[in-house]
Amino acid sequence: MKKVLVIDDNESNLFLIKTFLKKHINDCIVLTTDSGKKGIKIAKEEQPDTILLDIKMPNMDGFEVCRLLKADKLTKHIPIIFNSAHVNNSESIIKGLNIGADAFIANPINADELSTQVKVMLRIKQAEDNLKKEVEKYRIMTETLPDAVTTINLNGEITYVSPRTVEIFGYNNYNEMIGGNAINAIVPEQQDIARNAMADVLKKNMIRDMEFRFVRNDKSQFNGELSASLIKNENGKPIEFIIITKDITDRKMAENEILAYQKKLKNLNYKLSSVEEKERREIAINLHDVLGQSLSTAHIKLSSLSNIKLNPKADKIIKESTELIHAAISESRTLTYDLSPPILFELGLIQTIKWRLEQINKKFDIAVNFQCNEKKLNVNNDISILLYRIVCELLNNIIKHADANLIKVKITKEKNHLYFAVIDNGQGFNYQTKTKLNQQGGFGLFSIKERLDSIKGKFIIESIKEKGTKAVVIIPVQKR
Q1: 111-115, Cβ contacts within 8 angstroms, sequence gap of 24 or more
Q2: Which of 208, 359, 437, 439 has the greatest number of beta carbons closer than 10 A?
Q3: Interatomic CA distance for residues 69 and 5, integer angstroms
Q4: Is the dihedral of CA 180, 186, 190, 193 positive or negative?
Q5: Residue 126 to residue 58: CA distance in whole angstroms
């Protein structure tokens, strides 16, 4: 319920004004007093929404009462309407306005004018109260946020800083920051980027989560994340920026630790893969040199018995055993090539990939095409093995999933990089560059990228549904 305080030394005026207000303004409490001193006391205690104040009063006139009310932080926000026969006097009006009066009503009092003026003041007071609540709400928000809140004008001068801003940037109080240029809080090498970011805010109204290196008061630096929005006036004209700065030092340290750990894991994975390949090669050599030779010898000896006349039962057993040994020789040879193809170490990566394509053509009846503008690739054995495994992974994916009838492998050298392109005309898939590989192509594609990271290589996929897929492996050329 609204409160109106009437201060007038004339009892009849008090009664008349109270009656008018009660009649024309619903839900209104009217407080009255006949002296300025009492009026000031009531105003402090009751916090009325508007004060009607007579100018000419004994002991303390209306001008003095108004001055004291406007000088006190408890009452300075209350609208004051002067009520006097001197309203038509320009000198009185100027004096009243200078000390803080908001409106004037002339005597004799007109009921409609009185109620209208009071209603206007009540609306103004209500609007101011609402604004204060909003201001207080945002003040509490900015002061309790864990991030720094700063406002700057269009020239970059700081106009407001939250307590957290003072703390993060290492100042003693906000006065040390107000009026300074906000751009100086960013390291010199990033200040042009910051200026461009503020220009973007003027165009787009907002930027989010831009990382900068910030400078504290003691010249130390920290990693921060900046978001900014535009503040406009009632006409939509930009007047200020509001900036939120988050100290991400701990997060960056954690990210760097994770990256370092991931790098160690990738290096470990690369080393394990190298060890695994060496073991595979040793097993393949043993299969070929020991088991393969033994099986071949046994096959030759058993085959020689075919020239000797034996009883039918023995002849049958020898024939079956020969066939089994022959199958075992073929299986051991296939296993040897799957484990570690000797051709890779004898003739090199180019011939091995070409051989692999020929095997796919024979086994799966898929047309193949091989192109290479190099006679020899300048890569060591470990990287040759890695690249061979990656190409085989891509070829296996095509065989299993693409439903293709043509596979192309193209090897080229451009400047300081080797390019291995594996292309098919299969069913393809809707590849999205911003989505992680392990969420699109399974673990195989993700594994390829991880293995390439260990040698600073790159993996690019281009795929369209029903139009095939192109996978490109890029590695830096080793120095001779």
Answers
A1: 111/20, 111/23, 111/24, 112/24, 114/17, 114/20, 114/21, 114/24, 115/20, 115/21, 115/24, 115/25
A2: 437
A3: 13
A4: negative
A5: 32
Neighbours of 263 (CB within 10 A): 12
Helix (H) or strand (E) holding 222: strand 221-232
> CA 43 to CA 64: how far, in whole Å?
14
- Provide the 8-state DSSP code for 157: B
Bridge partners, 475 (sequence order): 418
In 3D space, the residue among 135, 197, 185 whose CA is nearest the CA of residue 157 turns out to be: 185
Residue 220 burial (10 A CB sphere; 0-12, 13-18, 19+): exposed
Q: How far apart are CA 139 and CA 128, in angstroms?
A: 16
- The Cα 334–Cα 284 span in angstroms is 10
Tokens 């104040």: give the residue.
53
The answer to whether residues 342 and 287 touch, using CB atoms and an 8 Å cutoff, is: no
Which residue spans within 297-438 are E strands per DSSP? Answer: 367-372, 406-414, 417-424
Of 267, 285, 265, 216, the C-alpha closest to 245 is 216
Q: How remote is the C-alpha of 237 from its chain's centroid?
A: 29
Q: Positive or negative CA dihedral for 362, 368, 374, 378?
A: negative
Main-chain dihedrals φ then ψ at residue 279, nearest 5 degrees: -65, -40
| Distance in angstroms (rounded) separating the CA atoms of residues 57 and 272 | 99
For the segment 85-134, what is each residue's pLDDT rounded down to a tens digit?
655 677 888 888 899 999 988 877 788 888 899 999 999 888 888 888 88
Using CA atoms, how far apart are residues 457 and 449, in angstroms rounded to an integer? 8
Instruction: Give the residue from 93, 266, 32, 380 showing the smallest Cα distance to 258.
Output: 266
Whole-structure pTM value? 0.51
Parallel, antiparallel or unpaired: strands 2-7 and 28-33: parallel
- The pLDDT value recorded for residue 383 is 86
Q: 350-355 contacts: CB < 8 A, separation 24 or more?
A: 350/374, 350/375, 350/376, 350/377, 350/411, 352/388, 353/388, 353/391, 353/409, 353/411
Question: 438-479, pLDDT tens digit by residue?
Answer: 444 455 677 788 778 878 899 999 998 888 999 999 999 865
DSSP secondary structure letter of residue 468: -
Q: How far apart are CA 357 and CA 363, in angstroms?
A: 10
